[in-house]
Amino acid sequence: MVSVNEVCQVLQQLAPLSSAESWDNVGLLLGRAERPVGRLMTCLTLTPNVVCEAIGRNVQMIVTHHPVMFRPIKSITSETLEGRLLLDLIEAGIAVYSPHTAFDNAGEGINQWLAESLGLELIEPLRPFATGIPGGSGRVGIFQETLSRKEFLEKVAAVIGAEYLEVAWHGSENVRRVGLACGSAAEYLTDALQSGCDTFVTGEARFHAAVECQSRGINLVLMGHYCSERPAVIRLAALLSARLGDVECFSSEHDQNPLRQIPG
Fold it and tell me: Which of 75, 119, 241, 255 could be bridged to 249 by S-S, CB 3.0 to 4.6 A?
């Protein structure tokens, strides 16, 4: 049977840890490397419902995009949500791995998938790595033919399965050159401007990022953090299944968007 360590090796082939951002906490975060894995579940975020699902479905390993442990931990007790999650996982013998920004930046990762799914061409990293490692953060590309605002927004919504998008449209009415970065990535706005993008797409951004777009004449499209990453987590299960023939790989059915749009 495939071991936790062997699954980690496959994950690192898909998303090398060297391509993760320096501030991130990636890799095997919990578990024994020698333990066998027969069932593996992917998710965007570890929540109590997702952990209960994993235990109920007899999962031996979870690949969560967002690290369950991000900041240093001083104690693991049932007094905190994080502590309860970790204790439940430990008691169930479930290993936890997080690829996070390594998968964001990978050649088969989230940003590349988004760019290709939108139909962009001549795709390159929006911010190439400064260390000499091939690749980089975010993606930038062009459409073969210019799209209208309506055409572009419909395409984005269809790719990620979003019911709504937030838009700060302060630049060109048409879309040709697009920069994008999944999750919360407004820090790449300057890179998009320097790359000559007329439109920048990300998951979420602060209010003042939208104000900056207004003053600098670039369009901003917010997909929603969950919507920008969840489809690729489902895809990750398929990528792993193709590489781990003896392991049943599937995505969580309880990994849900905590935010809802309701009428006022």
Answer: 241
